[in-house]
Write a structure and sequence with these properties.
This protein is of the alpha+beta class. The protein has two domains: 96 residues, no CATH class; 148 residues, Porin (Beta Barrel), CATH 2.40.160.20. It is 18% helix and 37% strand. The strands form two sheets. Strands 4, 5, 6, 7, 8, 9, 10, 11, 12 and 13 form a ten-stranded antiparallel sheet that branches. Strands 1-2-3 form a three-stranded antiparallel sheet, with no helix packed on it. A hairpin with a 6-residue loop joins β9 and β10. α2 packs across α4. The longest helix has 10 residues. The relative contact order is 0.10. Pfam families: DUF3237.
Length: 262
């Protein structure tokens, strides 16, 4: 266990001037927000007694020398050894950023949430095999029609949309789609949709999905068909879609649910 270095102390504080007229900097503990004059020895002593800091180190960085000294007392002085470089985990690294811009508070990063937003069902023309390329077998599929409904509207899928499939040797398939939605409004709005994702799973399952006689009988839980979805429109009623993000979960017969990322 290494000794406590100034870097371990400084990483737990942000420095700032409480007043423009102050000649000396103040330091604020990012774990309990207590403020004191900048002094490395006193800052170190505070961390040895700060329950929030010690709790965070216990969970995210159990090798932290300040935590070690708080539990076991000061280390026995030995011949200094080269200190190895250690990678801090993301949360510890983020909380260690310093600067006047972050002097007020340290905020947790929000976690994204998925909300089921709409569903699409599409009828397809037969697949056209383009042939093998350097990345795999390329196929082309066009849309006959379809329908959709969701929290913000409903309508049809305009004929002429396209799928481009690239199937790797292990039968995993990368899928790129581009098509247009028409709403049931009067007059209707038109929304361009782009999909990009993968269909993956055990080889025997993927072989069945490639066989039209068996594909519809395959349990969707035995493979993964996930896409990233984005949309674009110039219609003022649906401009909120332009900045949205969605994750699609689909099945072979091309029905998928779209979950908005919020």
């Amino acid at each position: 266990m290494g000794r406590i270095g100034d870097g371990d102390v400084h990483a737990a504080y942000v420095e700032f001037r409480a007043k423009e007229s102050d000649k000396c900097l103040s330091a604020q503990c990012i774990y309990c927000q207590s403020v004191r004059a900048k002094n490395t020895s006193r800052q170190r002593q505070h961390l040895l007694e700060c329950p929030n800091y010690l709790s965070a180190m216990k969970e995210h960085n159990p090798d932290n020398p300040i935590l070690h000294e708080s539990i076991n007392g000061p280390p026995i002085q030995t011949t200094p050894q080269p200190k190895p470089n250690k990678k801090r985990d993301h949360e510890t690294m983020m909380s260690g950023f310093q600067g006047e811009a972050s002097a007020s508070r340290s905020f947790p990063i929000p976690k994204p949430i998925l909300e089921r937003d709409f569903q699409i069902s599409v009828q397809l023309n037969p697949k056209i095999p383009v042939g093998p390329g350097i990345w795999g077998q390329r196929s082309w599929i066009t849309y006959i029609s379809g329908h959709w409904n969701g929290r913000w509207g409903k309508g049809t899928v305009v004929p002429g949309g396209q799928d481009s499939h690239l199937t790797a040797p292990d039968l995993s398939t990368h899928i790129e789609s581009k098509y247009c939605l028409q709403t049931h409004d009067h007059p209707p709005a038109y929304i361009v949709v782009k999909n990009d994702g993968w269909r993956v799973g055990p080889r025997d399952i993927l072989e069945k999905l490639e066989n039209p006689a068996e594909a519809d009988e395959v349990d969707p839980k035995t493979y993964s068909f996930r896409t990233y979805i984005s949309m674009e429109t110039g219609d003022s009623r649906y401009l909120h879609l332009n900045t949205g993000m969605w994750i699609g979960s689909g099945i072979k017969r091309v029905i998928y649910d779209a979950y908005r990322v919020i």
